[in-house]
Amino acid sequence: MNNDIKFDQHGNIDVDYYIVAAKRERDAYLSEMFADMKKSIAKKLSLRLPKISVELRRPAH
Description:
Layout lengths: L14 H31 L16
């Protein structure tokens, strides 16, 4: 982990940099969370139909 602190041109901690970085991390987390939620909901709502075997033969005479 990099412990370097970012400073602005006045020597203060660059709060804007950390706000942007936090928003980027939050967006990535939320994107992954909603993608996983979508997969989970789709899996729970999917219907699995039984396989039906149909033989098409001519009737015997």
